[in-house]
Amino acid sequence: MFIKKTVLIFSDGKVTIIIHIGKISSMNTAQFITKRRRISQKFARVRGSAYFCRKIQYSMTITSEQLRITGSESEALAIYNEVRMSGDFRGFAQRFMHDADYRVARIALWSLTKTTDDELAQLNGILHEFIDLAMQTENPSVRRLSLNIIERLKMDEDDLRTDFLDFCMAKMTDVGEFSAIQAVSMKLAYRMCRFYPELMDELTRILDTMETEFYKPAVISTRRRILNGKL
Q1: Gap between the Cα atoms of 177 and 171, Å rounded
Q2: Which of 37, 49, 113, 199 has its CA 20 to 30 A from that of 129?
Q3: E strand or H helix at 5
Q4: Could you tell me if 117 and 152 are in contact, meaning their C-beta atoms sit under 8 angstroms apart?
């Protein structure tokens, strides 16, 4: 019978495992099992620490050029996964969302839409940066993606901005706007108006007067759900 004795050594943040094989002489079965269990538990603790060290040491290598040439869903997912490995979604957003090249900004925002709610929560602290971007950009894709991210972020009463509310109300009724922007603007207007009954009354009046024949099904559906209290 043999037992494996595991020696764990850290070197430059990596784990080296050295295994020595030796004969068991006077060890009974119970002792053998206990020793193996202790070795396994020790390895599990060190392995967890090693993963944590690797995660902390990881840094993003994403560049503007890499974003510029990204064009497929799989490539956008690869960008997201690299940001996820670094754990710095806020740093990634602030570095690229304001890029003068709309393609770079668009791909960065597209990658951020892949995040889980917990990951996206890192961006709650820069909610107003996304609001400013949505209101100021001239690129429809950047506007749509930034609005979609805003919709998933936490928004309290203190975050309510009259300029953004006016913006959303104008976009949701603009028959020349893209339907995706109209619909998400309507949802955001509803979220902001819920804080004050008088604002909800105003929103309801606007929705009631909308001539639905000028709008796409997605917009009509969002309008109907708000009016029916089902959003």
Answers
A1: 7
A2: 199
A3: strand 2-11
A4: yes
Tokens of 201: 């009354």
- pLDDT per residue as tens, the chain (231 positions): 444 444 444 444 444 444 444 444 445 555 545 555 665 555 455 444 443 334 444 567 899 999 999 999 999 999 999 999 999 999 999 999 999 999 999 999 999 999 999 999 999 999 999 999 999 999 999 999 999 999 999 999 999 999 999 999 999 999 999 999 999 999 999 999 999 999 999 999 999 999 999 999 999 999 999 999 888
pTM of the model: 0.74
Residues 6+ apart with CB under 8 A from 172: 182, 183, 185, 186, 189, 219
Tokens of 142: 């950047």
Distance in angstroms between the alpha carbons of the first and the last residue of the chain: 67
Residue count of the chain: 231
Question: Could you tell me which residues are beta bridge partners of residue 5?
Answer: 20
